[in-house]
Amino acid sequence: MNVAIVGTGYVGLSTGVCLAEIGHHVTCIDHDEKKIKLLQKGTSPIFEPGLEELLQKHILSKQLHFTSSIQEGMKGSEFIILSVGTPSKKDGRVQLSELEKAAEQVGAHIEKGMIVLIKSTVPVGTCERIKQIIRNHSKNEAEFHIISNPEFLREGSAIQDTFSADRIIIGYENRDAAERVKELYRPFHAPYVLTNIRSAELIKYAANAFLATKISFINMIANLCEQVGADISEVATGVGMDARIGSDFFRAGIGYGGSCFPKDVQALIHTAEDENIDFSLLKETVAINERQQQILLKKAENVLGDLQGKKIALLGLSFKPNTDDLRQAPSIAISRSLQERGAIITAYDPVIKKWDSASNGNVQLKNSVTDALQNADGVFLVTEWDEFRRLPWPALLETMKRPAVFDGRNCFPTEQVEACKKIEYYPIGRKPII
Ligand code: NAD
Q: Which tens digit of pLDDT belongs to each residue from 31-84?
């Protein structure tokens, strides 16, 4: 089948290489010409495990093409997947201008029988509006179909998630078009949920808002654990083994971040507000998360006193491991707060090699953990990259002014920390080890 994908970012590119892998002919379109040139050479502009291999494989197999021309990309395609960004506006509502612009461009080249899938996360009612925009810009009044097909892949495991999706949501008006979409995705062997378009749009927000709430919930339990002498790892294990609850997204830490949860929770709060529903549960999810992002700072102040002039090393900057995405990463909130308190901030991340100090907090990026930790008064473990677990910690702690480790992701089991002689270890929801 011939597929065009408009918007070659984390979602569009991951989807594109996976659709090529299951045998489709895919053209990825992006208006960022630099990105397209890079991709045409087989270089991925993003860090995503397994992506570059598939990219190069299917450029060679000629099943994957890249262009900045919508007209060229859409030519001969039965499916047009829209996966452009839908970021938050300042007030927390969804910015739909990229999607509307893409719809205008798609409208100019739409042909009879084409099926337009909206993969971007969009508020209820948006697909209907996008359909209207496409129709308004169609020169030949071609009859086309619209499908709401929200995406659930996670950065860091996007390829694996696409090949083993829990479900594929198909929100449709026209049953034949829905059947064609089922055919498109059939080799992924995922269960389908066929719904009306509005339900499909809402499923995505409800899922993300629920997961965010689950994280805020376990973080509150972790804070309680610290007060009552319980251990969050044991509590979360015991609670998560209940099949009705489950252990996924049930780890305490310094809160969620990324390009999806924060904006999607805000968007759902606004959708509810527009319908005169006060979704106070979600407002509290957000408030808890914002407080949780500051928890290492509080612990550091309790232990180290005034942070003015103190050197704090951050390990990990991306919002989670195995991605280079910094959007809404907790590291940004932490850096800004540390800067406000006059701390000197160094940092190391395995893949983040650029940092905007003016807007994200004044951080000196180092090329190694050793450089970041040198003479530090404390280290914050911000992102649980695997390599941090394997570090020669005893030797590294020797290089610090004070071996104070504030572990925002509970990376280390108690026995391992206890075996480390010279350490002051402050995890989340567990007893410190000093
Ligand atoms: P992104 O910012 O990484 O990519 C969007 C791409 O669209 C960019 O490369 C941009 O240049 C391009 N673009 C914008 N307007 C265009 C146009 N008119 N023509 C061609 N290209 C255009 O975004 P993303 O993270 O891939 O997210 C895309 C959508 O998927 C969002 O709605 C997001 O909420 C949703 N989503 C994201 C994830 C995730 O993990 N990133 C997961 C599920 C759903």
A: 999 999 999 999 999 999 999 999 999 999 999 999 999 999 999 999 999 999
Indicate whether residue 253 lines ligand 1 (CB < 6 A): no
Q: What is the pLDDT of residues 328-343, one digit of tens each?
A: 999 999 999 999 999 9
Euclidean distance between CA atoms 304 and 264, whole angstroms: 36
Any idea what DSSP says for residue 425? E
pTM greater than 0.80 (yes/no): yes
Q: The domain containing residue 350 runs over which residues?
A: 293-426
One domain, residues 340 and 421: yes
Question: Residue 117 Cα, ligand 1 centroid: separation in angstroms?
Answer: 14
Residue 116 lies in a domain: yes
Residues 185 and 277 in one domain: no
| Closest atom of ligand 1 to CA, residue 150 | 44
Q: Scanning the structure block, which residue is given the tokens 């071609």? A: 142
Kindly report the protein residue whose alpha carbon is nearest to atom 15 of ligand 1: 98
Cβ contacts of residue 83 below 8 Å, gap of 6+? Answer: 5, 6, 7, 8, 9, 11, 12, 15, 119, 120, 151
225 is catalytic: no
